[in-house]
UniProtKB/TrEMBL annotation:
Zn(2+) binds at H108, H112, H118. The active site is at E109. One of its GO terms (biological process) is molting cycle, collagen and cuticulin-based cuticle. It comes from Wuchereria bancrofti. Keywords: Disulfide bond, EGF-like domain, Glycoprotein, Hydrolase, Metal-binding, Metalloprotease, Protease, Zinc. SUPFAM superfamilies: Metalloproteases ('zincins'), catalytic domain. GO terms for molecular function: metalloendopeptidase activity; zinc ion binding. It is an enzyme of class 3 (hydrolase). CDD domains: ZnMc_astacin_like (cd04280). This is Metalloendopeptidase. Binds 1 zinc ion per subunit. Coiled coil: none annotated.
Amino acid sequence: MMHHYIYFEELLKKKNVFAAEHEAKWFQFPIKYRFDESLDILHISQILKALEIWQSNTCIKFENDQEASGDYIEFFEGDGCYSMVGRFGGRQGISIGKGCERIGTIIHEVGHTLGLWHEQSRPDAEEYITVVKEYIIPSYISEFLKRSEHEIATFNVPYDLGSIMHYGSTAFSVDQKSKTLLTKDPFYQMTIGQRDSLSFYNIKLINEAYCKGNFKFEI
């Protein structure tokens, strides 16, 4: 599982498609979480809304426990928005820094913690997108690497250009405007990178991974 990461602040900053390793899944439900004292009331309110969207559309359940131990999530205000992919065991941080208060951004980071890679990491990504490496900030090129079928489980869910886990057109662009990702079908160029809410296939994928395909759609 340590493909993107080195531990802890460094590890967390590196970050669809589900992590194939069996141990990456959460096995104890509800998943306990707590809030670090660095978070203000706005952050906490937005986190609660994001968690409710996951709960309303999947079998995943969360429970606040400020005295949590064992495997649990701790939300804190770090330098940016970041999370590990899948369960690592023990305290697991999700940073919701300044500028990360959007509900869709928090849903995205929780998705990582549940086991979702970025959509453009899928083994079949090249059939749908082109990565424009010359416009990517060099230190972030690894974020665009395609993963193998041994690292990623798709559960036969189609590639999802509308995934909340997909990077946008100018992600990590050297000038913040040149496109680093191009969709094979130009019609979908404005679709990638949405941070409004879960897509149908985001919901299906998590439910296939955790709930044996029994899922609902209530967004």
